[in-house]
Design goal:
By secondary structure, the protein is α/β, with parallel strands linked by helices. Helix content is 20%, strand content 27%. The chain has a 9-stranded mixed β-sheet with strand order 3-10-11-9-8-4-5-6-7, with helices on both faces. A 5-stranded mixed β-sheet has the order 13-14-16-20-17. Strand 6 and strand 7 form a beta hairpin. The protein is elongated. The structure holds S-adenosylmethionine. S-adenosylmethionine binds next to strand 3 and helix 4.
Length: 334
Amino acid sequence: MAKNESEPENRYIKKDDKKQIVKITKMIAPSLEERGLTQKDVMQKAQKVKNDEFYTRYEDVVRELDMYPKSIWKNKVVFCNCDDAVNSSDRNTSAFALYFLRNFNVFGLKKLICTHYAGNIDLLNQEQKGYIFTKYGFNEIDKKKEYPNNYTGSFDDPLSLKILHEEADIVCTNPPFSRSIDYWRTMIESGKKFLIVSNIAIVLTVSYVHYFKNNKAWAGYNDVDWFLSPKRELTRASGYWFTNLPIINRPKYRQLKIMPLKDIPEKYKRNDDSKMLLVDKGYIPSDYKKPFAVSTRPILNGLLEKGYMLIEDKEYYPYINGKKCFARVLVKIM
Ligand SMILES: C[S@@+](CC[C@H](N)C(=O)[O-])C[C@H]1O[C@@H](n2cnc3c(N)ncnc32)[C@H](O)[C@@H]1O
C-alpha cells in the first residue's frame, strides 16, 4: 500500500458548506501484505464484525455517475435502498440521495425513493426508525417522508421489495458489507438495473463469480478507495463500482496489454506447480488456447468484454514451489 504511506497526515475534503480538515485514519497501519492478509480476508472480517458503517463520499458518487449518459435517468424511478438518509442539511444526507436530489430536474427523473434502515448504528446519527423518503416532482415541496408501521427499512423488508419490484427502474447505493451476498442475489433476481459499490474482491469470490461469468453484472468505471466513517474520518477500503448498465468505451481497456504469449516479458508470465499459466501486470496472451489465471484487475478492466471468458465459478489459488499465492480466476479465449 505504497499510496497509503505517501499520503499527508491530514487532507482537505471539499464539502458543500465549508472546507473541513478530516483526519486520515490507518495512516501508519501496516499494509495487508505485511499483515499476511488478502483483500478477501478483509472483506470476510468486515462481514464478521458487521462493520457496515462506511459511507460513500460525494465526490466518488459524482465521479462514477457522471460517466453515464444523462439520458439513462430520463423518466426513471431511482431507488436508493440502503440507509440513504435524507436530512434537511446536505451534510447529513447520504451522497447518493444528494446526487439525485441535485440532478433531479436536469436528469428528468420521475421519482427518487430512498429508504432508511433502522439499525443500531445510524447513518450520520439520524433517526432510529425505518423510513421511506420520496421525491416525486420537480418542485421543492414535492417530497415526503413516511414511517410505515413495523417498517425496518431493510432492503429485504416486504415494503422495500415491493418498491423494488413494482416501482424501481434503477437501484443505486453502497449496500452493507455484512449482507452483500443477499443484497446481490436480491438485485440480480429482481432483473432491475443497478449501480452499486462493493468490495473489489467479489470478482473472484465464489458467491459472486457466476454473476460475472454469466454476464449478469460487470465492473463500472471506477475504484472507490476511500470511505467516511460515522465520525467522518477517511477510511481506506478497496471498493469498486459494479453495474448491469452499459459501459461505453471503458477507459480501463487501455490497461489491458493483450499480445502474443512470446511477447509478454518473462517476469510477468510463469507456470504454477500444476503448470497453469499465470500472467501479471495486465499482460494477457492473445494466442494461448488453454485456461490461464489472472488477478482481479484485468476483470475490472474489462477483459471479459474482449473475447475472454471465465471458466469456473470460483477463485483459483496457485501454488508455486508448494507456497500458496494470492487468489486469481481462470479465464480463456472464447
Ligand atoms: C456501507 S454503508 C453505506 C451507506 C450509504 N448507502 C452510503 O453509501 O453512504 C451501508 C449501510 O447499510 C445499512 N444497512 C445495514 N443493514 C441493512 C439492511 N438490511 N438494509 C438496508 N440497509 C442496511 C447500514 O446501516 C449502513 O448505513
